[in-house]
Design brief:
Length: 133
């Protein structure tokens, strides 16, 4: 009976890993012919990587909020907008996610880097005009 219990437990654990691996909770972008939506595509990336915890309604590190387009356009203590519509590569938000950011530490600080595929979604949103959609 002990053998069956251990075997059953191992099967359940393996099954859990398989199911979890198949459940991709990573935010994904829209189809290539659809615009990127701030609320549907960008905010979920910020949430997944903890950006809103440090730059949201409760806490605003460096006086920056990333939970609203208006606040991203206003920027923070750097004195420049975090997002420059139409210019992802020139936007401080993207530059701070790079391995060698211009100000301090790479963001999100103390966390794994935002994957290139998700950075590409954010860049696309910025290059499309950083609409509040």
């Amino acid at each position: 009976m002990l053998y069956l219990t251990k075997t059953f437990t191992v099967v359940i654990v393996i099954f859990s890993f398989v199911i979890t691996g198949c459940n991709d909770d990573d935010p994904v972008g829209p189809d290539p012919d659809e615009p990127v939506s701030f609320s549907e595509h960008v905010i979920p990336i910020f949430q997944q990587h903890g950006c809103i915890g440090c730059h949201g309604p409760t806490l605003q590190e460096n006086n920056l909020r990333v939970d609203s387009v208006e606040r991203l356009l206003a920027g923070g203590d750097s004195g420049e907008p975090a997002v420059i519509p139409g210019n992802a590569e020139g936007s401080m938000l993207i530059r701070q996610m790079s391995p060698n950011p211009p100000l301090g530490n790479r963001m999100p600080f103390g966390m794994s880097p935002v994957p290139e595929s998700q950075q590409d979604i954010i860049k696309r949103w910025i290059n499309e005009g950083a609409e509040d959609n």
